[in-house]
Hints:
This protein is α/β, with parallel strands linked by helices. It has 20 helices and 27 strands.
Amino acid sequence: xxxxxxxxxxxxxxxxxxxxxxxxxxxxxxxxxxxxxxxxxxxxxxxxxxxxxxxxxxxxxxxxxxxxxxxxxxxxxxxxxxxxxxxxxxxxxxxxxxxxxxxxxxxxxxxxxxxxxxxxxxxxxxxxxxxxxxxxxxxxxxxxxxxxxxxxxxxxxxxxxxxxxxxxxxxxxxxxxxxxxxxxxxxxxxxxxxxxxxxxxxxxxxxxxxxxxxxxxxxxxxxxxxxxxxxxxxxxxxxxxxxxxxxxxxxxxxxxxxxxxxxxxxxxxxxxxxxxxxxxxxxxxxxxxxxxxxxxxxxxxxxxxxxxxxxxxxxxxxxxxxxxxxxxxxxxxxxxxxxxxxxxxxxxxxxxxxxxxxxxxxxxxxxxxxxxxxxxxxxxxxxxxxxxxxxxxxxxxxxxxxxxxxxxxxxxxxxxxxxxxxxxxxxxxxxxxxxxxxxxxxxxxxxxxxxxxxxxxxxxxxxxxxxxxxxxxxxxxxxxxxxxxxxxxxxxxxxxxxxxxxxxxxxxxxxxxxxxxxxxxxxxxxxxxxxxxxxxxxxxxxxxxxxxxxxxxxxxxxxxxxxxxxxxxxxxxxxxxxxxxxxxxxxxxxxxxxxxxxxxxxxxxxxxxxxxxxxxxxxxxxxxxxxxxxxxxxxxxxxxxxxxxxxxxxxxxxxxxxxxxxxxxxxxxxxxxxxxxxxxxxxxxxxxxxxxxxxxxxxxxxxxxxxxxxxxxxxxxxxx
Length: 720
C-alpha cells in the first residue's frame, strides 16, 4: 500500500444463512401411525361435543368413536402385542418399539375414554329435556318394574346360560366384545361364596336398550338382568353383580401360499379369531379388586396396563340404537342423493356413456343406486352384453350388486368376480357371497396369492354397432350401497378404449397371478407401478418448479403413512413446491417446519360424511394431471395390495375435481389444520367466511348441477 494512503475499513458482507440440513432418515421428522389415528378420533369426538351438531347426531359420533376404538384394539393393539410376543424390537419410522407404542396408545385411549364418558353423561341430560332418557332400573315405578320383569321372563330369560366359576368348572370362554355379568352368590346362611358368569345377549333381535312404557325412556338390558337375578339363581343370596367386557385380537392371518384351499383357510382363521388372545378387559367402576385380579389372571392380561375401568356404560357403540330414533329436529337435515344429470335419461346406460365418453360420479351426493347399481342391472339384462368382470372387497349381503351378477349369469352372460376373502371383518360375509355366486355359475377367483385385491373395478363387454366395446367403472370406494350413502367417494364410468384395454390386462393378472409383460397405458396398478408413479410425479413437479416456478401438488386420501412418499414430499417442499394434503386420519408427515416442510399444509375434514375418496393432483407445468385411486399413500396399499390409479382427463370432469379441492381448502367449518407436533386446530367461521362445511357445500353444488341440467333440458326440448 502506498505511503500516506488511508486503508479503508473492511466492508461487512452480510452472509445468507445456510439452509439447515435435514437427515430425512431421522425419526424426529415422522409422526407415529397409531397416535395420529387416535388423534383423528379426538376430532371425531369433537363432533359430539360441538353444540352446532344436532343432538342425536352427537350421540352417533360417540358410538362411532367407541366402535373405532374397539376395532383399534382388535387390529392395531392386537398386532403390536403379537410383535411384542415375538420379541420384535424393530423401530418404526418415528423411532418407537412395539411396547412403547402400546404404552403411549393406552395413555391416549384412557384420556379419550374419560372425555367420552363425561360427554355421554352431558348428552343424557340434554336428551332428557327432549323426552329421551336412559334410566336406572331402580328409578322405575313398581308397575314399570313389573312390566319389565314380565318382558324379561318371556323374551330374555330363555336366552341366558349362567356358568359357574369354581374348581370343578374351567373358566368359561368369553366371546369378543360381549358384555358379561360376574355374579357373586351364596346359599342362605352359608359363608362361602361362589362366582358365576352370565353373558348379556345383545344382538340378533335383542336390543341393548329396552323401552319402558310407550315413550322414549329406556333401561339397559344388563340393568334389567342385574335386578332380576333371582330367576337365574332361585333360592340363592346375591352378594354382588359386576360387569365386564373383553376385546380379542383380530390378527390371525396364515400363510395362504401353503393353503390348499383358501376358503377353508379363511374359515379356519375366523374360528381362530373367536378364540384369539384377549387384548383388553373393560370393567365397571368399583369392581372388587380380588375379582379384577382374578379376571385379569384368567384372561392372561397385565392387570395394571390391560384393564380399563369405565365409570359409565360399557360398549357405547350400542348407542347407534338410540341415535336412530325418529326425531327430525335432533338429526341433520335429510339428505337424498340426486340422480346424476347425465344419467337421468331412461335410454340405455351404455348409449349414454358412449355419447359422454366418461362420467364422473360423486357419492353420496349423487345416487349409487341410479349409477353403479343401474350399470350392473342393465348389463345383466342387456342382450348385447357378453360378459361382466368385477372386483369385490366389501359389499352389502342384501344389496342389488350380487342379485345383478347372479341374474347376468342366469341370462347366459360370462360373469367373473374376484372376491377378496381377507377383507377384515367381512371375511365370513364374503365367503357366503362367493358360495352363492359359484352356485349361480359365476366364475369366482380370490385374487393374487399374497396380495389383497383392494381395487374397485367393473368391466362390461358389450357387442356395439361397430364391434365389442368395453365399458368400465373405476371407483375409490367399495361396491356397498349402505356405505355409499355416508362415505364420500368418487367413481368414473367410461368407455375409453385404452382404459378398457388396461382393465382387461388387470383382470387377467388378478385371475392368473401372471405379472410379466403387462402393458398398462393409462391406469397405474399397485404393487408394481403405483408407488413409483407417485414418486416420479413428485420428482417431476420439483423439476418443473425449478424451471418454471408455481409447482403445486395436492393429495386427498384417508392416510399418509408410507415413508418414501413422505420423504419425497419433504424434498418437494424444500424445493419450493406448494403442497396441500387433505388427509382424513393417519399422517406421518409434520407440516410447517422451517426449511423442511414450510410449504406443506395438512388438513383433515371431519363432518357429516366419512371422507373416503382418494384424489391425486400434480400441476405439471400447467398440464393439470388429476387421478382418482383406490389406494391411500400407505405402505400396505402401495406394496402389498392390488390397487388402481386412474387418470381423469376430460376438462369438464377435472373442473369438478378442482372444485372438490377448492371447497375443502376454503372450508371454515369442518376442516382441522395440522401443526408440526401432530396436533390439530379446528377452523372457525368468521363474519365474512361461509358458515357451511364441505359436505353441506357439496350437497348444494350437486343440487345446483341438477337444477342447471333440468333448465338446459327444458330449453332444448322441442316444442310440440
